[in-house]
Amino acid sequence: MTEIYVGDVRLHVPNQGFGPALLLVHGFPLDHTMWRHQIRQFAGKYKVLAPDLRGFGASDISPGTVTMEDYADDMAALLDALRVDKVVFCGLSMGGYIAFQFAKHYPDRLAGLILCDTRAVPDTPEAAQNREALAAKVLKEGTSALAEDMMKKLFAPATLESGSDEIASIRAVMENARPEGVAAALRGLAARPDSRELLGQIEVPTLVIVGEHDAISPPDEMKAIADAIPGAEFLLVEGAGHMAPLEKPEPVNAAIGAFLEKHAKA
Ligand code: MLT
Description:
Elements: E1 2-6, E2 9-13, E3 15-16, E4 21-25, H1 36-42, E5 47-49, H2 68-81, E6 87-92, H3 94-105, E7 110-116, H4 125-141, H5 144-154, H6 157-162, H7 165-176, H8 179-190, H9 196-199, E8 206-211, H10 219-228, E9 233-237, H11 244-247, H12 249-263
Helix pairs in contact: 2-3, 4-8, 5-7
Residues 27-28, 93-94, 189, 216 line the site of D-malate (MLT).
């Protein structure tokens, strides 16, 4: 485990293994535990960094608004602190929005990009307004209502019906998420920029992964992202929803493993 300070904010950065670096950036409103299968699989061969973003997990909160650029700056700061030059940046959903900002601002730190279940489009004005309203609600009433609503969006129906321990643990992560951290991220999500222009300028090897039943970032939209990034590979994960790396770790790890073999650099 590593703790890193960015200014006076302490980030909790589970950090395992040695070798070329793989940075795993979680989605909203989760923490590093969503990557448990990838941490276990890849820490034998790579240096796996799986931070809790500011405001989530065991990291400190910065209230107000935390933008996708802010989170990307945190990722660059933690690489500096750990003296890691280049990473394969793997982000899911909000982690993907952060990956786009990282690719924009720190292109020379990237050995490769893995985009899981994410979107390049910004929020519509209505979606942004809903996020503002949700931020106010979470601050007033806590995160339980959010957890209830998110569960149906995150997982494929069959995964939810399986009633696995993993499902319960993700629900617990959301219920335990701290309202100020969640609200700050919601405001940042509402303000996130359009990343479509950036796609054609991405010059590093890229792998795009999406669950067949992803209700938040549907396969067609992710295929369009892959088509717009020069040379990108695309994996459709059968039977998975928005949480493909957690729901179907075997095909996801096979694709990530093959990608790392080719592109991860010490
Ligand atoms: C996520 O999984 O990170 C969120 O669902 C992203 C979003 O709400 O846009």
